[in-house]
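Quick illustration, no need to memorize.
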Amino acid sequence: MKVCFDTFGCRLNRAEALEMEAKFLERGWTRTDKHSEADMIVIRACSVTARAQRDCARLADHIRAKYPMKRLVVTGCTTEKKNEHWLKDLAGDTGAVPTASARAYLKVQDGCAGRCSFCIVPKFRGEPTSVPLQKCIDKAGRFAGAGYKEIVVTGCSLTQYNDNGKRLPELAAALAEALPGCRFRLGSVEPVPLANEVVAAMSAHPNICNFLHLPVQSGSARILTAMRRPYLAKDVDAIAKNAVSLMPDVALGCDLMTGFPDEMPNDHLATMAFLRRHPFSNVHVFKYSERPGTVAATLPGAVPPEIRMERAHEIADMACEMRRQYARRFRGRTVEVVVEDEKTLGGWTPEYLWCEVGQTRAKVFAHSRKSKNDGPARKSAIHVLVTDVSGDTLKGDVV
């Protein structure tokens, strides 16, 4: 029996898809990327935007029309769940370890208590729930035992993690101390006061990746208030400055939204100014899109789509140059890379920069591993001396 997965959306959805896939494999199924070969097709849907939900629905309709006799399951972040009863025997943590990815994804939390005016996710994910801290450590240990060198800690809203008073800073520290041979990458960290404690945990544990992603959304206090975000730009400024003071080379990431209802030119300029104030190296910018069922979709002052796009391009151009400037810092340094592409030994550094080795040297390295019965390079951690930077890609030699 073969199963095929189509996964939309965020790291959390990917973590859930990989875990489900592992349970299928544990029961004797095999994985395929082709719908034509599959006995069951699982769509893990995303509904964070109306467009994402439409894309998932279109795929489901296409599969039903083309393969009417195949078993199709629609699950994930959506209310339009179909045939989930076919997955009922996969419930619970069976101990199965996903093997399809080069990095492991550890789901520690689900749900959100926030009520941001543009977001519909709480409708699908519900109220916050947290995986007990010891279970998180145990599962991370299984990932490490399966050869993973990087574990991505993910959740719907990580700063809402709470296991009987043990919050995200305590969880991050516990994971790092329990498995010193693995590195841990935290997903998005809301820029709330707790983030400063997360920063302290990161700076105290070298195996927590030097990467802090803040879902900021806007640099305008007026727009953040309309979004019902639980902070202002000045609060994010303080967190970013604290992170840089404790970790001078920290990679700062953020999400920024353009064209929220009633966003004026001065609000956009405030976001641009916010971006300039800090050495951001990983900026995800997207234009606002109306999501039926949210408060924001009913607000007056809709920004024309072409203005939303223009502002998004302006921010993206600035962010691209900032990322390149940040990457150039690493010329002449040695970085750790978790390999995803065996041909070039390409993979991500702790700072979320892509780094690769020339194919000739990669072949030499692979041959050396094979002669030592070390297995394939994928998932392994290597150290690379950066000799060149092309755009925002690091290049170098294995050391």
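The two ends are 44 Å apart (CA to CA).
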